[in-house]
Design brief:
This protein is α/β, with parallel strands linked by helices. It folds into 2 domains: 3-172 and 361-376, 3-Layer(aba) Sandwich (Rossmann fold), CATH 3.40.50.2000; 177-353, Rossmann fold (3-Layer(aba) Sandwich). The protein is 43% helix and 15% strand. It has 14 helices and 13 strands. The strands form 2 sheets. The protein has a 7-stranded parallel β-sheet, with helices on both faces. It is globular.
């Protein structure tokens, strides 16, 4: 009889992509294991998980959002309570029916009812924490977890009072990203010139207005430099406005900027990018590290516990990225940083690109899978 694993997590790519990396590893290496994924209907997991060919089940779940005003706060609490009860009931039924051997939580609100169900049914579960600063949900449930997998070794400090069951594994990166160099450099896909130094900007899966505007301004300032070209992944919510306001900057062979709303195949972007300008979500940091692309990281200032800053700081401390505060970001600051990087025959840029050191994320998918499977058959 096949062993069974339940993986839960969702909401954003930062939780789902590492889960996909683990699912890929298990599916490739262990044919006698059945995987079930628990997510929500509204999260990105509803689009990204079913194509993997594993069982996908949705439950109700939401966070306790901080709203202003008494009425909105009461409404937020009511929705939270209704969803947590519904999600817990469904999770109890799923676990009872499927009788999984291992349960792994990858983060997001959907994990709360699943973890609660595990406690009520006395089922062991594992947690993976993607960020440098752990989320509240993982901190709450850490003391009950069999093991907590950490993306950053320093994160252990935040769990020390909760548990000693932490394991430094890194943050798993999908196979298609780890092997991004295996494909041809497809500049033509984006209307770019082959071999020209390419700078790419994006603000996470939803986009970031400040990064968009600053990057467009930077490309305009540098428009006479034929040795540079720019591609902006604006986010779908900003694309129409940007396209209309950019006055045709993206059209024509003589233009140095291309703008696209979203890109599912980030491996194509990484393959042509010489420099990345982006937010510093845990998944982005791990992918940039694995691809060894120098970066200017602009942490999202409203991230809980400022965790994006600490994600970025990890790469900056290892001399693989430069941190720029969001409040300081504009086209002129980006121009100065870029000119500093490429001056003196690209001395600063090459220092970032050629920095030696262990890549902690390249084997994370294997480390976590080996631990799960080892405990499974122990």
């Amino acid at each position: 009889m096949n062993k069974k694993i339940i993986i839960c997590g969702g909401g954003t790519a930062g939780h789902i992509y590492p889960a996909i990396a683990i699912i890929e590893q298990i599916s490739e290496q262990y044919k006698n294991i059945d995987i079930c994924y628990i997510g929500t209907e509204k999260g990105m997991e509803a689009r990204l998980i079913p194509p993997l060919g594993i069982k996908f089940i949705t439950i109700k779940s939401s966070g306790l959002l901080q709203k202003s005003g008494i009425i909105r706060k009461i409404k937020s609490y009511i929705i939270f309570i209704i969803n947590i009860i519904s999600g817990l009931t469904c999770s109890l039924n799923i676990i009872r029916r499927s009788r999984p051997d291992v349960i792994l939580g990858m983060g997001g609100y959907v994990c709360a009812p699943v973890f609660l169900a595990c406690l009520l049914l006395r089922k062991e579960f594992y947690i993976h924490e993607q960020n440098y600063i752990p989320g509240r949900l993982n901190l709450i449930f850490a003391r009950f977890a069999q093991k907590i997998f950490l993306s950053f070794k320093e994160t252990e400090e935040y769990f020390r009072k909760k548990t000693k069951r932490t394991v430094f594994t890194g943050n798993p990166v999908r196979k298609i990203i780890r092997e991004f160099r295996s494909g041809d450099k497809n500049y033509r896909k984006y209307g770019l010139k082959p071999g020209v130094f390419t700078i790419t900007a994006f603000g996470g899966s939803l986009g970031a207005d400040r990064i968009n505007k600053s990057f467009i301004g930077l490309s305009d300032i540098m428009k006479d430099n034929k040795n540079l070209q720019f591609i902006l992944i604006s986010g779908k919510r900003f694309y129409s406005e940007i396209s209309e306001s950019s006055n045709g900057m993206v059209a024509g062979e003589d233009k140095n900027l291309r703008i696209i709303p979203y890109e599912d195949r980030m491996q194509d972007i990484y393959n042509i990018s010489d420099l990345i300008i982006s937010r510093s979500g845990a998944n982005t940091v791990a992918e940039i590290a694995v691809c060894r692309i120098p970066a200017i990281l602009i942490p999202f200032p409203n991230a809980i516990n400022n965790h994006q800053y600490y994600n970025a700081k990890f790469l900056a401390d290892n001399k693989k990225a430069i941190i720029l505060e969001d409040s300081e970001t504009n086209e002129y600051i980006l121009e100065k940083i870029l000119k500093d990087m490429i001056s003196d025959n690209f001395r600063l840029y090459n220092g970032l690109k050629n920095k030696k050191g262990e890549n902690i994320f390249s084997e994370s998918h294997k480390i976590i899978t080996d631990i799960l499977i080892g405990d499974l058959f122990d």
